[in-house]
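Researcher: Quick sanity check before group meeting.
Model: Go ahead. Protein one:
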Amino acid sequence: MENQELDNWTVVTGGTDGIGFAIAERFARGGSNVIVIGKEKDLCERAAARLSKHGTKAVAACIDFSQAGAIEAAVQSVRSATKRVCTLVNNVGMIRFTPLAEATEAEFDAFVNVNIRPAYFLSQALLPELRASRGNVINMTSYFASKMLPGRPSTLYSMTKGAIKSLSTAMAYELGPQGVRVNAIAPGTVDSPGRSAEIEKMPVVAQERLAEYNRQSYPIGRIGEPEDVANLAFFLSSAEAAWITGSTMAVDGGLTAG
């Protein structure tokens, strides 16, 4: 276990699988107590059990951010566990590639409710704790905020991830004088359960084209693993990153370099 403060708590939304769980586990390995928030009971229970093996406290709250009252429930869960939040990782999100002509108002609202509202209102609600700990917020955006892919209609997803990128910059500017740092991470393609589920919905031809695109587009020669993102999140929360705020950092194997 790496050296961290004994009463250091990290909150990770969407933290029960994929990138979110990898981030939570990296913080647990680094000595932080962790609160993960996810919507599926079995994943919550499994995440808490796995995280507790690292010797720190682990709390899992089952909350669906698409439902009314979710923000309040999340805040209550956090404050029931601790009064000291050092890092908030706003990772929860949904991804779906619906053509502009086919998107409905209900789908638009769902994207906003899951991809934007939790990041904004959890940061707002937990600001007293973050100020007290001189903590930091890490928001998860995406390369889709600025780079599109052929055959992947992403208006809704790109809109919300672009909003998170702008939100992070504005939050950093506003909260810096209050001692709170804010940064965003923009992952490239990461091998995760969410990605696999979306790919399975695509026609076989589209899947083959995407695989070929990935082979040609990543200079480093592979797509990412959740741990690649987790390592950056842990660094951004550390004392070594004390002068980094307002940044959106790509962790994408060079995808957006050219």
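Researcher: Fine. The other one?
Model: Protein two, sequence then structure:
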Amino acid sequence: MIIIDSQVHVWEAHRPDRPWPAESLAAAGGFVAVPGARPHRAEPVDAAEMAAMMDAAGVHRAVIVPPSPAGDSNLFALEAAQQYPDRFVVMGRFDPMAAGARERLAGWLEQPHMAGIRMTFHKPQWSGWLDDGSIDWFWADCERLGIPLMLLVPGRLEAVGRIAQRHPGLQLVIDHLGIHSNLRDAACAGDIAALVALARHPNVSAKASAVPCYSNEPYPFRNLDGYLRAVYDAFGPRRLFWGSDVTRLPCSYTEAVEHFTRALDFIPPAELPWVMGRGLSELLRW
């Protein structure tokens, strides 16, 4: 079984020629998506360290997602994938409001090691794009160009449903099961229900990434079993992708892997390879 992690971050510290946004530099400690989320570790992670972490946990490949606090540059992620071309691909950040965005999008997949785009909508300056029509061209062009998208979109899954219906050829992957990053345990129920409702769209998939971050219980996080079973039953093994977000886990990387490979008894052994990597590999043509 080839195990592919659907989300890892690598990043470098702020430096003058590759600066971090001012608001990120002002934050202390590890970066977080929103207040109350489990923070990522404060120290940067490079490709060599991530590859070693993967080796120790039995993870063969991983999708690098550049972290939003470091800004919109994909250079460090692409350099990591170039260093380990058999192990990493990148779902890069993209600003649809930037000058020349549409022209840049046209050649997106021509970049070596670039597999798609990861959009984040967890802040007001981005979530408004889901309603005002300003990036309607982006969804249409990604559909036409065959660019798969990963979406961090907590609380706005109904907007994803509208996009999926309007663009049936566009592959949309929901990050972190659609759960708000500051929620734990039973508080996740509403977000899980909203995600399950999206399963009716065949072009929507779900990343079971960072799952341990949403439980206050220790491994194997039994209080999440019912939610994971509901998502698995709705999406099936070919549209549910395991992932770790390893740099903010409250458990070991190995436990995050074995949570799915050993602790969850509702995934049949014959279907487990799809959840652990094959489904994502096919979607990204990797």
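Researcher: One line on it for the slide.
Model: The beta strands are 4-8, 61-64, 88-92, 114-120, 149-152, 172-174, 204-208, 240-242.
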